[in-house]
Amino acid sequence: MKMKRIGLYAVVLLLILFLFMYPLDAYISKPGGAYDLAPIVEVEGGDKDDVGIFNLMTISIGKATPATYVASKFSDRMKMLPINKVRKEGENDKEYNIRQKKLMSDSQFNAITVAFSKAGIPVDITYDGVFVVSVLKGGASDGKLETGDKIRYVDGIQLKEAGQFASSITGKGEGDKVKVTVERDKKLLDVEITLREIPESQGRIGLGVEFQEDRLLATDPKVKIHTADIGGPSAGLMFTLEIMNQLLDEDLTKGYNIAGTGEMLADGTVGRIGGADFKIMAADREGVEIFFAPNDYLPEEVRAKNPGIMTNYEEAVKTAEKIGTKMKIVPVTTIDDALDYLKDLEPK
């Protein structure tokens, strides 16, 4: 009898472990948190006497388990995401994390440049090689280059200008060899690559990588943004507002607890992001009074092909109404929309 009981306990334990630990080929997203940006964004000598708060909003994403998968079917605060909605095809954990960090880095770059431009302060931008965003499976660089590599030289010639990398490959044919020098883990490595057809490119020859030209940004005063393990581009709008709040003597918050989301593009446009609904839930839970939501444009053909699709602002308003929050949802298409709203806002 005792052995049967032990066997039963073991079966129950294994079942619990399976339900809560076994990873499924999907993800679960949930509301994250609100983070006061004043200690995260540091403008050298900047104004820190403001009464209100600008918040960075997050969502939580983790691998689905049988238990969380079932729970997501009965909860408005959990959502199951197919793997292709989170990762690119063939992307592993390391590559995903690198891409998210790069998106965060780019959002910070744009936030700083836009904020300084609005404050009338010049910045210095210099070219900084080529960042490997991804390596195409079956392409010439498969197994030779890695996501996150920084290409510094091509055939011994240092990359110093925009467009130089693409022009150094243009004109070469299938079977030609190219030596690239990459920075990986703070070390320089020489890699010889034989050019071949780029997968699914209809005959184009190349290295078979997705790349992005990198830039270095120098500002006076200096800006540091401490984001730890937070990734993605969605904090760009709020970074921009916090940087401006420290650059300027006035308190842009007018004493309010303000949050928002949206990618900051180089021209000041606020880009669409994912998880607007969960960020509204998290903001309401944290006592946020005003929330900026991207009012992105969706062409009619996109709406026709995707029934039920909403702009971030529409999704935010729908969620706010559903949870009964008193939080004010403000649509923004550009940084100027947010600044104009704050300018007209009565101090608290």
TrEMBL record:
It comes from the Bacteria. GO terms for molecular function: peptidase activity. InterPro entries: Lon_proteolytic, Lon_Prtase, PDZ, PDZ_sf, Ribosomal_Su5_D2-typ_SF, Ribsml_uS5_D2-typ_fold_subgr. It is an enzyme of class 3 (hydrolase). Keywords: Hydrolase, Protease, Serine protease. Its EC number is 3.4.21.53. The active site is at 234, 279. Residues 111-186 form the PDZ domain. The keyword Iron does not apply. GO terms for biological process: proteolysis. Residues 229-345 form the Lon proteolytic domain. It catalyses: Hydrolysis of proteins in presence of ATP. SMART domains: PDZ (SM00228). The keyword Protease applies. Pfam families: Lon_C, PDZ_2. Belongs to the peptidase S16 family. NCBIfam families: SepM_fam_S16. This is endopeptidase La.
